[in-house]
Specification:
The chain has 85 residues and is of the alpha+beta class. The protein has one domain. It has a 4-stranded antiparallel beta sheet with strand order 1-2-3-4, with helices on one face. The longest helix is centred in the C-terminal third of the chain and has 32 residues. The radius of gyration is 15 Å and the shape is elongated. The mean pLDDT is 93.
């Protein structure tokens, strides 16, 4: 399973991609891109004998958590920028 989404804030687009990778180790990997550059990466090791349904749920949960983290970080940066004189 793979999840891909785009988050837009003030004309800035962030792409969030989460998938299961097998090399170098079996894990769920999430990447956040902005202008072609990776801004954030999260890797969660997975047991190789995990059921597909559990893997799919893990991918979905991590993807949603990363989206929330991006939203939170962008919000915090915009608040900080608005407070500057």
């Amino acid at each position: 399973m793979k999840q891909l989404s785009t988050l837009t804030f003030n004309d800035k687009q962030f792409t969030v991609q989460t998938e299961i990778v097998h090399k170098p180790q079996y894990e769920v990997r999430s990447l956040v891109y902005y202008s072609g550059k990776v801004l954030l990466k999260k890797e969660t090791p997975v047991a190789e004998n995990m059921e597909q349904q559990e893997l799919d749920q893990m991918v979905e949960q991590q993807h949603l958590a990363i989206e929330e983290e991006v939203k939170s970080r962008v919000y915090a940066l915009s608040q900080k920028k608005n407070q500057q004189p």
